[in-house]
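User: Reviewer 2 asked us to show a designed sequence for the structure in our supplementary figure. I'm pasting the structure tokens here. Could you produce the per-position amino acids so we can include them in the response letter?
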């Protein structure tokens, strides 16, 4: 339901009655179907193309690295590297 709301390209229902009304609307309104399809396509291109995913993932990783560099000087941090634990900053 979240993606349907955010994209404007989907419908949701909470009962058989609303499901039935949704199916009737989709079956009888070609323009409505086309508008939903276009909204879904644009949403998918904006948020789920590889360049978009990689950009968001890169920003996330940069934020993780930035948080890691703000450690208290001299504080020890245990790092597991290939099954061996190392102590840093002690």
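Assistant: Here is a per-position design you can include in the supplement:
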């Amino acid at each position: 339901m979240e993606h349907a709301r955010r994209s404007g390209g989907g419908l949701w229902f909470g009962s058989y009655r609303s499901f039935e009304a949704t199916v009737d609307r989709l079956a009888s309104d070609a323009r409505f179907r086309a508008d939903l399809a276009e909204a879904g396509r644009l949403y998918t291109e904006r948020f789920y193309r590889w360049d978009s995913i990689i950009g968001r993932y890169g920003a996330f990783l940069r934020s993780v690295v930035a948080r890691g560099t703000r450690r208290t000087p001299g504080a020890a941090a245990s790092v597991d590297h290939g099954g061996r634990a190392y102590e840093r900053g002690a």
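For the response letter, you might also mention the following. Residues 30-48 form the longest helix (19 residues). The mean pLDDT is 82.
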